[in-house]
Write the structure tokens for this entry.
Amino acid sequence: MSRYTTGLWIVAIWACGGANPSSSGDVWLPRSDSGSARDASQGTDPGRDPTLAEETVFPDSGVPEDTSLGEESPGQPDPGPRDSGIGTDGGTDRGPLPDPGTTDDPWVPTDLGPQDGVGGCDPCGMGTIAGVTCAPNLRNAVPYVKVWVDTTDCNGMPHHYQTYSDAQGNFSLEVPCGTQTVWMEKNSYRNSFTRWVDKGLTTTIRPADGCFPSTAAKIAIVTGDWDDIGLIVGTHLRLKHTDFDGITGGQGFTTAGAEEAVRFLTDLGRMSEFDIIFLNCSDSSSAIMDQYGVEVRKNLEDFVRAGGSIYASDYAFSYLEGTWVSAMNFPNDPYLVGGHQTVTATVTDPDLAAFLKKGTVSINFDLGPIVAVDSAGPGSIVHIQAMVKELGKVAPLMISFEPYPPDGGRVAFTNFHNARQLDVGSDITSILEYVVFLM
């Protein structure tokens, strides 16, 4: 079975470049063809929200708060040496993160045998193991996780017991009593834990068991001028990742400053060391594809064909547009849509709607101009859509697809991003946290 069971192409319609609103607040100037597309009103460093405190309180997901994570912020660069074996051009490793699956976590008991005063397992029988599947931060539930046990029944016959967690991460699985190893899988993410299950009773797991470890998937992030998915991946969810610099630093649509990203994306061997590559919205993406497009497109195709997954936002559409040409259709001017507006969008993906517990969301396109998507191609899934006045019709804001089923990976694109709108509980934050575990 492919580790990527669902295609996710995410296409949004407002995003990361710069534009100036008219006095009426309704007409937006297109991106200039020269220089940087940054909005001068956004300052010189739009990639990180200076108001985002490390002590952010996450919305209640039904998972108890972890008090053992300390002051470490996995969203900040590791001041120590780079990832071993990477060399001087290999990307910045943000360093080790707390791993809720380690034995020094106070929630992980050392005695896996039967507890006093409970059901035991003599003679053999069935019991139930239940809990919540969650992120490494021990706070955010992860939905639709496959949970299974491979063991023997009371007659010594091998048997496979399987279920999926629901939209809020809750699961319950009846298995033979005794010591059982429980496996979890969500696309690129893996986890397992061992617990004693009492006959005739329900054993409720602790968050340290049901939460994926920080190293559950190997994640690479190409940084950008106008986006920072690392704030979601690292700071919020506490997943370990390695960064590759794709920031031009105000030098416009050029590869200057993004040499690390160029070296990474033109080296399939290095790319193949990861399960997921996140491509941030950046001025450098179109320049990289103009100069290295043939090589990068082949590498992206080979990476996904081998089971890897890719997420791109807004201006990073350049990596996808000529690579999977049938997946989605762009207008002649993909930078058609003006930013600086909030849109009420419809969640057309029932799984995402169940996770969000609502069918409409508020999407704040705080920068501009942004990339428009005209329509989804055959086989692509539209997850969120809205009326786009520049197109005069309802169009996709989030789209996904799997180009090489059944064993290939997933590609996802959104034209909205997160650099300034990581308010806890906001629609965009919740959507992007969901997207991270769809990869």
